Amino acid sequence: MTVLAARDISCEKQDRILFENVHLQINAGELVLLRGENGAGKTSLLRILVGLSQPQQGCVSICGSDVYQDGEQASHAFMYFGHKLGISALLTPIENLQYWCCQHHISVSEQTIVNTLEQLGLEGLETLPVKHLSQGQQRRVSLARFWLQSQAKLWVLDEPMTALDVNMVKMFEQHIQSFLLSGGAVIMTSHQSINIDYPNREFALEYRW
Ligand SMILES: Nc1ncnc2c1ncn2[C@@H]1O[C@H](COP(=O)(O)OP(=O)(O)OP(=O)(O)O)[C@@H](O)[C@H]1O
Hints:
Strand order of the largest sheet: 6-7-8-3-9
CATH architecture of the largest domain: 3-Layer(aba) Sandwich
Number of strands: 9
Keywords: ATP-binding, Cytochrome c-type biogenesis, Membrane, Nucleotide-binding, Translocase, Transport
CATH superfamily of the largest domain: P-loop containing nucleotide triphosphate hydrolases
Bound molecules: adenosine-5'-triphosphate
Pfam families: ABC_tran (PF00005)
Shape: globular
Structural class: alpha/beta
Oligomer: single chain
CATH class of the largest domain: Alpha Beta
Number of helices: 6
Order of helices and strands: EEEHEEHEHHHEHEE
CATH topology of the largest domain: Rossmann fold
Strand content: 25-35%
Protein name: Cytochrome c biogenesis heme-transporting ATPase CcmA
Largest sheet: 5 strands, parallel
Domain ABC transporter: 4-208
Distance between the termini: 36 Å
């Protein structure tokens, strides 16, 4: 089953063509590693894939919904982890996750959220405003969303391992593997090596001057 179909995508930034005529199809259960040196356009491509920015040309659909024409419908089918963590510094980890669940019509108890935070090494920090947490801890709060029930069939991950310690990297790698084994699809970029015991396919963007 096709989860993501991107056709003929071109992107230009500051008069530089980052990439042209990109075709990318990702099926259920597939892991795609997006490669390319700094500035090659990986983040730009991922943002286009989830509808956060518009390409100069081309179209993208996720689980059959066009991300530009039918963004609301498409947004239920994927989860995106980008450079911005998507959490409020003023809210506590529990409040942040409750808010996110509410926005995404995910019904979970506060206890489930507390258990998830504990599982991710955030015990004792659940009720502290996020601004008082370290960078890695804040990223853990944001990543906790991937442990809560969601209908998403695709995870789009932009440098998810940045600032995470060895234990958390391992935990997230295992979690990604479980998601893939359950039929989920993943596209991710990482400058670190990824140790996921699962077949992967590389998709490379060349730096263009
Ligand atoms: N909003 C923007 N306005 C202007 N230029 C941009 C914008 N976003 C990205 N760029 C430019 O596009 C190019 C590609 O950036 P992008 O972040 O997609 O690269 P990347 O492959 O993800 O790099 P890295 O590995 O460093 O994260 C860079 O030269 C960047 O300066």
